[in-house]
Amino acid sequence: MSVSRWLDPHYSSEYVDGAEHILRDYLVPALMRAEEVTAHRVASLLAPVKGHRMAKAAMEMAVLDAELRASGTSFATALIHQGLGGVRVSVEHHGLRPAAA
Hints:
The chain is an all-alpha fold and 101 residues long. The protein has one domain (3-81): Enolase-like, domain 1 (2-Layer Sandwich). It has helices at residues 16-33, 39-46, 53-71, 75-81.
């Protein structure tokens, strides 16, 4: 799939230019008006705007990223230890092996 498809409203109801418009004109102002904005509250704060899942997800991830950076927590740590649904998977490591001659 070409990148231009994500810019085309004929391909999907959610497209990059549309998401930018919704973010700029509706979602960001809605969060700016809110008294308290947290990643857990973003969905309810943006609920009055119908649809636009891509733009809402981008906004929620941006708020979560800001929260995690402010607390010094990595996204991986948040996934595993803060109930965001991550699963820790270990990978067996045997060290580097010399290249065959």
